[in-house]
# Entry
Amino acid sequence: MNNCNGSLNEKLVIAATNFARNLLKVDDALWVFINDGDMFKSINHSGLFEKEMFVIRYNREWLRTAQTDRIIKCAFHETFHSVQYSAVIGYGIGVKNNLFTEDEMTQMIHEFKAKNYDDSSDKWCTHLLEQQAEGFAQELYEKFINEYENIEVFVDRYYEIYPNIE
# Structure
């Protein structure tokens, strides 16, 4: 139940999210939605991870005209934020992880606090959270383009593997 309208771009963003979720073993409790643009700061705001709800939201208006590579990278980027936040939650209760150093965990905890996060265009790229998510998205995209030549085959394989669970 992801409220996808059936367009290829909307199915692609869900499939790419599922691909990354599967690879990263993201908890099934993650919800993924495609929402109208009024939930976002602008039509160019592609997606966001809401840590309080453990939800990824994608901008339907942005998806209508977005290029395939941007859609896939956006999905990988937002999915990585769910991994970062899960690590922060785990760290808070004493669970160790192998992805992030102590210094990175300290910085991520700081950045995930709303009062410390500035998403203005000139500050956004300075956050460790965003640098890591962008790096992951680019690296996974390189793997993706080497494995999948046909987008429709990719969508067929990954679109329905993670239904949203209430």
Q: What stands out?
A: Helices lie at 8-24, 60-65, 68-92, 102-112, 128-147, 151-158.
